[in-house]
């Protein structure tokens, strides 16, 4: 029988409090993870749109048409990148992959002369 104010009751209260704190921290970390991954994917998508516009312009398309086509491809790039990023099983590998992909898109945009 557990008596109120006993050592077992105190220990049980501490465990419950600790578990609540861990659940709260886990929830906050998942929200931050989702927001950062979405922002990185958005940045990657925007750089891919810039690259697409620059490449189409250099291939001979009129600048305004290249911008319109590149903008339309952005509606394809972002969902594909987001699905790829959130399909990863390991959180650390997700961060490494998405940060690496964002870096690659920045380098490619710089090489294409489309870095904005």
Polypeptide structure, described:
The protein is mostly helical. α1 runs parallel beside α3 (91-112). The protein has a domain at 33-112. The chain has three helices and no strands. The longest helix has 52 residues, at 7-58.
Produce the secondary structure layout.
Layout: H1 7-58, H2 63-86, H3 91-112
Helix pairs in contact: 1-2, 1-3
- Spatial separation of the terminal alpha carbons: 70 Å
SSE succession: HHH
Helix content bin: over 70%
Rg over CA atoms: 23 Å
Number of helices: 3
Quick recap of the structure?
This protein has helices at residues 7-58, 63-86, 91-112. The protein is mostly helical. The longest helix is centred in the first third of the chain and has 52 residues, at 7-58.
For the structure shown, list the relevant keywords.
3 helices
